[in-house]
């Protein structure tokens, strides 16, 4: 069981490392300037242009690296927004009793019933398309899921005798949260956040594909897919490259999340 | 008198009574058993005695006056607890040293590693246990850790909620022996919540029988278990399985 | 011929550690046999192996013949030969099914009863475990029943198909002491009137002494001593058995002392 898990973790980390490595590389070196169209339109892969050029003559590999920045940025941004809001709200709901708790549970169920993409589209429609709006929208949708999970976990932990023991030992509620509740919900919540990060990357790509995410000229992978659509038969690499990058990152994040489960427990060394 | 419950009543929000008119006095050196079956109100009474729940009626008297919020820290320094399930009562992510030191930290007694070591020693655990995690210990050893946490601040009263009923028979004997020796050596009094009358007879001088939220009988353990006056007490005693 | 013959049973986990080590015993029809041991003794794993119900990751070797069927090499449905009652009835019962339907399921499957015949068989099963107000109980879900009622329902399910062997794994450990006494009486009566063989698994020597005739004491996966329970209790041979008996006697004696002086 844990051998399978550690294989998952290794494969996942490798995939994530390739994408993150590419993003870090992009800050130090790019094969071409992002707006350099000197290579001519729809150049085939090989030669100066590793993956060829797009229909405006921009280098595809350069675009792909820059798209990676957006993907990773979205994942980190959305997880931060969703994690902070979700855990805070879930903690409050976990401690709440009776009607307040019921109200919180119903509110979260309604929010979760909204598809992430629909919620994000509504927010983008109101606030205008930009990377920041997309990240906040995705983060808000994520917060509802994280809050619901946190609420259930908090209730489970609060029922444990070590919480009662801490109260009898004179530990205040805020310190019980910091020293007992958060450390015990952290493994499950962080695995869930990692899974959500994968979904966030997909959601941003979908929004960009629909023209609701990162506005041009920034090359989000979703936007690259959209732009490659018209020329997919003449230049399949322009569609394949962002598609493969997207799938690799999402699978990598998911495998990492799955593999992490085993490595967040003091009992693992058994 | 360490602690006295005067006419304690507790009703759920629905109005159903969990406890009615419970009066119980705990004197130094006289261990008290609270005997009863599930649903009798033992846990509710224990939560009230631990200051975790407020009684609907009646009051707790501690050190000569009714217990009030501002005296809670003082009260907790004197009254500590051990729980039934040693798997649920130790935080799996804390090392034993930190678990045992928790009352020192929470009650402003000063986190002093020598006191932690002394408490571990008193319950028969090696000093190097402090650096390990709960999952490395058996059920009986975990219960020793929980007892070490309870006595680290030298309380006068230990409220023990079914402390041995989750343990194997041979382990049960050792933990009961440990509790008895702690009473003798540390000027400690125990209130034991238990349905195991053998353990009660072994450890407690006073026995109170709780049925449906009322104390139906209380007095010297020898008298209550030896010559029970209430039919429910008699039924309890007859139900105890014995060796042929 | 015996109903159950366990010969050289060894159960190993994934790393090859023997959790049950070369255990042999047999149960004849109508026998009342105890497996006594503390946590980690391998007593519950032995019971699961007998029913071919070992959790994944554990492998059994040796031989287990249950009514002629080899439960290690060719485990087949044991439903009609043997049935088991567990410690915590709440986990053994389906929370979304009424007690009546849970008892009906094995009767329909193994005895092929339908309609009115099925209903009367369920009523009979409930009456046999002395559940008064059987109609209400049949319509109740597990969470609406008390611990003792739930265990009675679990026993009714187990005996509904008239098994030749009833395995009870710590059936009273989670119950109050007065309810425990009632359930032990009930098990005693059922195996007596039906002639069902009983394999009773417990850590509690006095409880075993109330229902069991022959017993095997297990420790660290091995049987350390076997014999009639009365002999075992009065003249324990193995040091571990002596410790067990002494522990039980301690509390017995303490209880007996009460009332002496007053």
UniProtKB/TrEMBL annotation, chain A:
Q: Which organism is it from?
A: Actinoplanes lutulentus
What positions does the domain ABC transmembrane type-1 occupy? Answer: 72-257
Record protein name field = Peptide/nickel transport system permease protein
What InterPro entries would the database entry show?
BP-dependent_transpt_permease, MetI-like, MetI-like_sf
Q: Which domain of life is it from?
A: Bacteria
Q: Per its UniProt record, what PROSITE patterns does this chain match? A: ABC_TM1
* Record GO biological process: transmembrane transport
In terms of SUPFAM superfamilies, this protein maps to: MetI-like
Automatic annotation (TrEMBL), chain B:
Gene3D superfamilies, per this entry? P-loop containing nucleotide triphosphate hydrolases
| Keyword Isomerase among record annotations | no
Q: Which SMART domains match?
A: AAA
Q: Which domain of life is it from?
A: Bacteria
Q: Where is the ABC transporter domain?
A: 3-237
Question: What GO annotations for molecular function exist for this entry?
Answer: ATP binding; ATP hydrolysis activity
Q: Name one GO biological process term.
A: peptide transport
Q: Which UniProt keywords apply?
A: ATP-binding, Nucleotide-binding, Transport
UniProt cross-references to SUPFAM superfamilies, sorted A to Z: P-loop containing nucleoside triphosphate hydrolases
InterPro entries in alphabetical order: AAA+_ATPase, ABC_transp_ATP-bind, ABC_transporter-like_ATP-bd, ABC_transporter-like_CS, Oligopep_ABC_C, P-loop_NTPase
Among PANTHER family, the record links this protein to: D,D-DIPEPTIDE TRANSPORT ATP-BINDING PROTEIN DDPF-RELATED (PTHR43776:SF7), TRANSPORT ATP-BINDING PROTEIN (PTHR43776)
**Assigned protein family:** Belongs to the ABC transporter superfamily.
How is this protein named in the record? ABC-type dipeptide/oligopeptide/nickel transport system ATPase subunit
Organism from which the protein derives? Actinoplanes lutulentus
UniProtKB/TrEMBL annotation, chain C:
Q: Which SMART domains match?
A: AAA
Q: Name one GO molecular function term.
A: ATP hydrolysis activity
Query: Which PROSITE patterns does this one have?
Result: ABC_TRANSPORTER_1, ABC_TRANSPORTER_2
Question: Known InterPro entries for this protein?
Answer: AAA+_ATPase, ABC_Ni/Peptide_Import, ABC_transporter-like_ATP-bd, ABC_transporter-like_CS, P-loop_NTPase
Q: Which residues form the ABC transporter domain?
A: 4-245
Q: How does it sit in the membrane?
A: Peripheral membrane protein
Q: Does the keyword Nucleotide-binding apply?
A: yes
Matching entries from Pfam families are given as:
ABC_tran (PF00005)
Q: Is Cell membrane among the key words of this record?
A: yes
What UniProt keywords are attached to this protein's entry? Answer: ATP-binding, Cell membrane, Membrane, Nucleotide-binding, Transport
Cellular compartment(s): Cell membrane
GO terms under cellular component: plasma membrane
So which domain of life are we looking at? Bacteria
PANTHER family recorded? DIPEPTIDE TRANSPORT ATP-BINDING PROTEIN DPPD, OLIGOPEPTIDE TRANSPORT ATP-BINDING PROTEIN APPD
Per the record, the similarity remark reads:
Belongs to the ABC transporter superfamily.
Name it.
ABC-type dipeptide/oligopeptide/nickel transport system ATPase component
Q: Which organism is it from?
A: Actinoplanes lutulentus
Upper classification of the source organism reads: Bacteria, Bacillati, Actinomycetota, Actinomycetes, Micromonosporales
């Amino acid at each position: 069981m844990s051998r399978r898990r550690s294989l998952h973790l290794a494969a996942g980390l490798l995939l994530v490392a390739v994408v993150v490595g590419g993003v870090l590389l992009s800050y130090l070196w790019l094969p071409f300037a992002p707006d350099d169209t000197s290579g001519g339109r729809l150049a085939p892969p090989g030669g100066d242009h590793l993956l060829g050029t797009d229909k405006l003559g921009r280098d595809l590999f350069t675009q792909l690296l820059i798209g990676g920045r957006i993907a990773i940025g979205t994942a980190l941004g959305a997880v931060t927004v969703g994690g902070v809001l979700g855990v805070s709200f879930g903690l409050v709901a976990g401690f709440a009793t009776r009607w307040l708790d019921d109200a919180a549970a119903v509110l979260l169920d309604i929010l979760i019933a909204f598809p992430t993409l629909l919620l994000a589209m509504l927010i983008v429609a109101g606030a205008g398309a930009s990377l920041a709006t997309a990240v906040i929208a995705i983060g808000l949708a994520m917060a509802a899921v994280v809050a619901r999970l946190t609420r259930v976990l908090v209730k489970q932990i609060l029922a444990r005798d070590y919480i009662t023991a801490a109260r009898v030992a004179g530990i205040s509620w805020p310190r019980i949260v910091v020293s007992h509740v958060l450390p015990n919900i952290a493994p499950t919540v962080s695995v869930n956040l990692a899974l959500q990060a994968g979904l966030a990357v997909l959601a941003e790509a979908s929004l960009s594909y629909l023209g609701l995410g990162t506005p041009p000229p920034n090359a989000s992978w979703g936007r690259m897919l959209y732009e490659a659509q018209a020329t997919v038969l003449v230049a399949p690499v322009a569609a394949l490259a962002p598609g493969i990058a997207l799938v690799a990152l999402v699978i990598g994040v998911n495998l990492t999340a799955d593999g992490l489960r085993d490595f967040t427990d003091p009992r693992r060394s058994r | 008198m360490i602690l006295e419950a005067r006419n304690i009543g507790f009703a759920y929000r629905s109005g159903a009574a969990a406890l009615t008119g419970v009066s119980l006095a705990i004197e130094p050196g006289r261990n008290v058993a609270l005997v009863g079956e599930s649903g009798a109100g033992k846990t509710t009474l224990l939560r009230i005695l631990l200051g975790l729940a407020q009684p609907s009626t009646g009051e707790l008297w501690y050190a000569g006056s009714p217990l009030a919020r501002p005296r809670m820290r003082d009260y907790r320094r004197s009254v500590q607890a051990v729980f039934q399930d040693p798997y649920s009562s130790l935080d799996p992510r804390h090392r034993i040293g930190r678990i045992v030191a928790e009352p020192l930290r929470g009650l402003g007694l000063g986190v002093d590693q020598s006191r932690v070591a002394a408490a571990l020693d008193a319950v028969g655990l090696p000093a190097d246990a402090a650096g390990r995690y709960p999952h490395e210990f058996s059920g009986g050893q975990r219960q020793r850790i929980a007892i070490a946490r309870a006595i680290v601040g030298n309380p006068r009263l230990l409220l023990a909620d079914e402390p041995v009923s989750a343990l194997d028979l041979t382990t049960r004997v050792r933990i009961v022996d440990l509790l008895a020796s702690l009473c003798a050596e540390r000027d400690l009094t125990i209130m034991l919540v238990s349905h195991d009358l053998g353990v009660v007879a072994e450890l407690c001088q006073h026995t109170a029988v709780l049925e449906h939220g009322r104390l139906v009988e209380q007095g010297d353990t020898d008298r209550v278990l030896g010559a029970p006056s209430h039919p429910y007490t008699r039924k309890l005693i007859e139900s105890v399985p014995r060796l042929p | 011929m015996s109903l159950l013959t366990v010969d050289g049973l060894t159960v190993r986990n994934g790393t090859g550690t023997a959790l049950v080590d070369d255990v042999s015993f047999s149960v004849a029809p109508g026998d009342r046999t105890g497996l006594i041991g503390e946590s980690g003794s391998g007593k519950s794993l032995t019971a699961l192996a007998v029913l071919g119900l070992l959790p994944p990751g554990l492998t059994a070797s040796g031989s287990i013949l249950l009514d002629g069927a080899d439960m290690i090499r060719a485990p087949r449905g044991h439903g009609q030969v043997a049935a088991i009652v567990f410690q915590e009835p709440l986990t053994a019962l389906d929370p979304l099914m009424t007690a009546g339907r849970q008892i009906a399921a094995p009767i329909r499957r193994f005895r092929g009863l339908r309609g009115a015949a099925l209903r009367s068989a369920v009523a009979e099963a409930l009456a046999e475990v002395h559940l008064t107000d059987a109609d209400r109980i049949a319509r109740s879900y597990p969470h609406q029943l008390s611990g003792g009622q739930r265990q009675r329902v679990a026993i009714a399910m187990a005996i509904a198909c008239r098994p030749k062997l009833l395995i009870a794994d710590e059936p009273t450990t989670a119950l109050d002491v007065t309810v425990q006494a009632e359930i032990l009486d009930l098990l005693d009566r059922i195996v007596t009137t039906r002639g069902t063989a009983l394999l009773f698994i417990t850590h509690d020597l006095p409880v075993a002494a109330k229902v069991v005739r022959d017993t095997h004491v297990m420790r660290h996966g091995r049987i350390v001593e076997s014999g009639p329970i009365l002999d075992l209790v009065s003249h324990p041979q193995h040091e571990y058995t002596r410790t067990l008996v002494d522990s039980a006697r301690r509390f017995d004696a303490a209880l007996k002392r009460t009332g002496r002086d007053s």
